[in-house]
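Help!! Second protein's tokens look totally different from the first
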Amino acid sequence: MAALRRKTTGPVSYKATDDIDPNRLVPGVQALRYTEAAPGGQLDVIAPCCGRIARLRGDWLHTDHLVLCTTCALAYDVQVLDENDGGFGAVFVVRDEQAVLVRRRARTGWLARQHPGDVHRPAPEKRPAKRHGTSR
């Protein structure tokens, strides 16, 4: 019986204009994206998962950046590339980490009552609706 052979290939890479299914953004996947200059020497780049803009600050050309998409809970390593034509590109590499995002907590419920030092305002009372067009 012939042994099964598996192709060994590098990580999946997407071009700058490719639409990427968010389900295909698994650890190791690379996506190239175009960038745009932003005020204050910053650089804007569009995240490959949902199209939101990440603004890179500081020395964006010589350092790697950690970018977290709070909408999709994906973490990326981002490296800016000089395209030698006056523009810059950015390579997103999906990290093997699952981010846990914080959300607003409810005012009521068991967990909210476990923190007695927190100041909770009671919910506003409902006022009776005014009737328009009636006179008494």
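Here's the second one for comparison:
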Amino acid sequence: MRQRVDRTALPILAAAGLAAVFAAAGLRPAAADENAAGADSDLPVLLLVQERPAANSPQAADIGIRLRTTLREALTHSGRFQVHTFLPGDSVIKRALNEHLIAADDLAEPHRVESLERIAKAIGARFILNYNTTVNRTEAHTELKYLDNPGRADWMVLADQQISIPLVIG
């Protein structure tokens, strides 16, 4: 029999990660009418970074993509962040490389915290949400790290969460 992650587990993983983000930032999720009130340009930018495991199975890749989509949508719909998903080939990342704001080594995985800080600064992000999902025989395990740069000088780790969801046999 094949092991799989129950599709209901992805929102649980995302919700646990979002709860950690909001609690660390001292925020509450915005109500639906608050979301329409502000313009996206006024919102702080959050850099969403997915770490890819070295032994990337199709199952882990699928979970990672679904979790990234769920996190991005939930963060965007919260009305608290303008979300920028980190993609090395993105135009804003290429521009930062051309302007020597970041080095090519900063794009190498696994990403060092210092590299993510430089990337976030180059694109104007105040927050970083870095996560890694691994799958073994019994569970899907996600590690989330949420960083803030309140004074544009030093970064602070506001949350460091580990979440495990059992696999469903079927």
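Reply: Different proteins will give different token patterns, so don't panic. DSSP finds five helices and seven strands in the chain.
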